[in-house]
Amino acid sequence: MPVDLFERDGVIHGVVKRTLTSQDLKNGAGKVEELESRGEMTPNRLFDWREADSVTLTFADIERVARDRGSQTHKTNSRTAIIVNSPVKLGLANMWKTMVENDWLEIEVFRDEAEALRWLAEKPAPRASTSAE
């Protein structure tokens, strides 16, 4: 799989290598969900897309996985940082950010790794209350 997933210092890291396909995105999301479920708190996530040499995802691919991720229950507020280095990856990452709708999760897209890490180190904003509560 062209996505290396590991946990370091309480943060789930995903480094995308080679070509990122819809199946890779789906499999990676499942593995991230498994890692998230292990602890008492939902960990922050850092996804680095800079090493991907191509991305074959369509709008429908991103929408399908993003909707699934957005509907998941999180134990605590958390953040996801996505690092990109090209206009195409920036567009895809922003599409992901827009489609994942979850009050427990903040997503930001960065071009600079140090900036992404600083943002992840900040405390996530409190979860927005919903009318269903």
Task: Explain what you see.
The protein has 133 residues and is an alpha/beta fold. The protein has a single domain (3-121), classed as 2-Layer Sandwich (Transcription Regulator spoIIAA), CATH 3.30.750.24. Helices cover 37% and strands 27% of the residues. It has four helices and seven strands. It has helices at residues 22-36, 59-70, 87-99, 113-121, and strands spanning 3-8, 11-16, 18-20, 44-48, 52-55, 78-83, 105-110. It has a five-stranded mixed sheet, sandwiched between helices. Strands 3-5 form a two-stranded parallel ribbon. Strand 6, helix 3 (87-99) and strand 7 form a beta-alpha-beta unit. Helix 1 packs parallel to helix 2 and helix 2 (59-70) crosses helix 3 (87-99). The protein is globular, with a radius of gyration of 14 Å.
Brief summary:
37% of the residues lie in helices and 27% in strands.
- From the alpha-carbon coordinates, what is the Rg to the nearest angstrom? 14 Å
Q: How many alpha or pi helices?
A: 4
Strand order of the largest sheet: 1-2-4-6-7
Question: What general outline do the C-alpha atoms trace?
Answer: globular
Order of helices and strands: EEEHEEHEHEH
Kindly report the average pLDDT value: 85
CATH topology: Transcription Regulator spoIIAA
In terms of per-residue confidence, which ranges show pLDDT below 50 for 5 or more consecutive residues? Answer: none
What share of the residues lie within helices? 25-40%
Counting DSSP E segments of at least 2 residues, the number of strands comes to: 7
Number of domains: 1
Beta-strand fraction estimate: 25-35%
What's the CATH superfamily, by name? STAS domain
Distance between the first and last residues' Cα: 40 Å
* The CATH architecture: 2-Layer Sandwich
- Secondary structure class reads alpha/beta
Largest sheet: 5 strands, mixed
